[in-house]
Amino acid sequence: MAKPKTEEPSAEDAKKIVDDAKNFIEKAIADIGKTSATKQLILGTASGWITGFITMKLGKVAAVGLGGGVILLHIASQKGYIDINWEKINKKVDKISDKIEKETTGKGPDWFEKVLLFVKDNSYYSAGFTGGFLFGIASS
Q1: CB under 8 Å to 77, separation ≥6 — which residues?
Q2: 2, 71, 74, 106: least CB-packed within 10 angstroms?
Q3: Which helix or strand (DSSP H or E) is residue 128 part of?
Q4: pLDDT band at residue 10, thresholds of 50, 70 and 90?
Q5: Are the C-beta atoms of residues 119 and 126 closer than 8 Å to each other?
Q6: Of 103, 122, 137, 117, nearest to 43 (Cα)?
Q7: What is the C-alpha separation between 39 and 46, in angstroms, rounded?
Q8: Which of 60, 59, 45 is nearest to 135 (CA)?
């Protein structure tokens, strides 16, 4: 019996899916401010708890992976398996940090102002999200 042929989504299909997701998120965020204070607190607490829980789980995995990788690289370097050109790495890091600093100082305030405006307009949701986020971190 032959397996049915499955087609991979095209770039246009992927772009449409991303656009649909953006529209859904934007609509959901716009609708939050129109709901009652109780509903905002419930939604904020639930989404904050989920975000905090996932952040802690992913954070632990990322910390173990990154830390383990750094330790393995250091051991391999000490034992002579690899030779690290620290001068080249430092130059690259300096270039990247300069570029990041330039990008963040030029675009940072716009993003931060949007966040502050959202928090001010949806104070109940924001309070619920903060509490839920802390519960999510504590429960992981």
Answers
A1: 83, 84
A2: 2
A3: helix 123-138
A4: confident
A5: yes
A6: 122
A7: 11
A8: 45
